Each structure stands twice: as C-alpha cells, then as structure tokens.
Amino acid sequence: MNIVEVEKLTKHYGQEDVVKQLSFALEKGTATALIGPNGAGKTTTLSMLADLLSPSSGTITLAENLTIGFLPQYPQFFPWLTALEFVEMAAKISGIETRKAKLQATRTLEFVGLETAMNKKTGAFSGGMKQRLGLAQAIVHQPKLLLLDEPISALDPTGRREIMDLLKSLQQDTTVLYSTHILNDAEEMTDQLLFMKDGCLIEQGSLSEVKNRHADPHIRIQFQNQTQALDFAKRQSWKSEVKESFVFLPVHE
Ligand code: ADP
After folding, report:
1. 31-35 vs 57-62, strand pairing mode
2. Mean pLDDT throughout 218-229?
3. Contact 129, 135 (CB under 8 A)
C-alpha cells in the first residue's frame, strides 16, 4: 500500500526549476534513499513533502491521517533548554497531550541513547548527540512517515552506524525517506533508491532493479566541472571513476 504518491512535482524559483516533474511512491513500512549530489533538489523535495514549502505544480497525495516527522539538515535547538525540555516541547507541538508529553519525551530520549544527557542543556551537545536529539524530536510522536534530510552524512563511521541501527529499530510500519549524497549510506536498510540530479529523477527502483536495468554497469553522473566530480567521487566508498566532468559509479558487484 502506498502512503505517499508524488505526481509531476515541480518547484521553481524565478526562472529556474530546481525540482522537475518528480513522480514516485512510498510504500508503507519501507525505507527509501533520495540520493544525489549537493544542489540536486533533495532538500527542496523533502521540504515539500513535509509541507514546509508549496510546490509550483504537481501533486503530493498522502494517506489519510498520515503523521509526519521531519529532521532538517541543520536542526535548530534552543541551547538554553535541556534535551528533555526540548523534546517535550517538540512532543506538544506535534499534538501530544501535555500530561503525556514528558513521559513520551523521556522514552524517546532513552530510545535514541540520550538517557544520561536528558537533563543537560543542548548547547553543550556534541555533533553526534545533536543528531540523536534531532532524531528524537522527529520521532517523539511516533510518525508514520519519517523524512530525514542528510541524517548521517556529517557523522563519523561510528556515529553513522549508530544512527543507522536506530533507524532500523523503528517500528515496522514506519516509512522512512532520507536524503544523502553518500551512496554507501543507501546500501543497507533501503528498499528503494531515488537518484536525483539537477532537479530530475534519473534512476528509480530497488538496488537490484537499478543494477539489472543497466546493461552498462555504471551510472554516469555529469558535474559542472572535474573538481566537483572528483569531490563527489572522493566521498563514495563505491569505487567510482572520474573522467573529465563525469563520475562513473559501478552498479554491479
Ligand atoms: P540538495 O538538498 O540536493 O543539496 P537543494 O534542494 O537544497 O538541493 O537545492 C536545489 C537547488 O535549488 C540549488 O541549486 C539551490 O541553490 C536552489 N535553491 C534552494 N532553495 C532556494 C531558494 N529559496 N531560492 C532560490 N534557489 C534555491
């Protein structure tokens, strides 16, 4: 069952289309990675799904009573609040009754591994702790759809592993859509890949479908110049090749 259906979704700023005619669906209980280099349109797409930005055209159809959690790429915390106060506030904003908000916030902070930091002010949190806190505020109301904008790209390998494991342990019927510019983040936990480039969806399907569709065992992504191509390639653990301004990513083992 699809809980989200996106049809020809487009966003333009002035003359420039930054998201172009995207069509895809998210099935209940699945995890989808929105992959693409910086500037591809990932944040814009997630913001439209989170209802923080209106589309220029196209439609987003959500299942009835769908609750959404959103983790922005750069979440803002109030440094003078404790983690518990912050997540309790997020719980109330998400519609949890005041008398239940504290308990729910406490449980969520335990779930993300911040039980010992609950009463510390968020201003003193490390990057990894902030990422967990951001996740806590996004899931405190147990949303059915979780939208995560680059949730792990900025973390070291241990931090990524931990957040990946947390995401895997979410309730089975939670649908997750997360963006990343790092391909190997998408290799596990992901049922569907959506490759974006210059606002367009250039590939879509399960990892095996994407692999099978390519007789040429590479996905070719063109960048504006070689420096950008090298920079993108450098971040991947998949062995990629750079030729001029193109990155060739192997999609077969
Ligand atoms: P990504 O998340 O893949 O890095 P974004 O969705 O942030 O990509 O941006 C896609 C493109 O849209 C970029 O070229 C960016 O400069 C442009 N863009 C994003 N927000 C705005 C805005 N508010 N006004 C004008 N251009 C924007």
Report:
1. unpaired
2. 79
3. no
Q: How far is the CA of 39 from the centre of ligand 1 (A)?
A: 6
Q: What is the mean pLDDT of residues 157-182?
A: 85
Ligand 1, atom 14: nearest CA belongs to which residue?
39
Give bridge partners of residue 60 from the DSSP assignment.
Answer: 6
For residues 110 and 169, the answer to whether their CB atoms sit within 8 Å is no
**Within its chain, how far is the Cα of 211 from the centroid?**
22
Give the range among 27-36, 73-82, 113-122, 208-217 with minimum mean pLDDT.
Answer: 208-217
Measured from the Cα of 149, ligand 1's closest atom is: 2
Mean pLDDT confidence for 137-154? 91
Which residue, by CA, sits nearest to atom 23 of ligand 1? Answer: 13
Indicate whether 211 pLDDT > 80.
no
| Atom 17 of ligand 1: nearest residue by CA position | 18
pLDDT at 215 over 60: no
Instruction: For residue 170, give the nearest of 196, 194, 144 by alpha carbon.
Output: 144
Minimal-distance CA residue to ligand 1 atom 7:
43
Cβ count within 10 A of residue 146: 23
Find where tokens 């759809």 sit: 145
- Whole-number average pLDDT of the chain: 88
**How many other C-beta atoms are found inside a 10 Å radius of the C-beta of residue 90?**
23
Pocket of ligand 1 (CB under 6 A): 13, 18, 36, 38-44
Coil/strand/helix, residue 193: strand
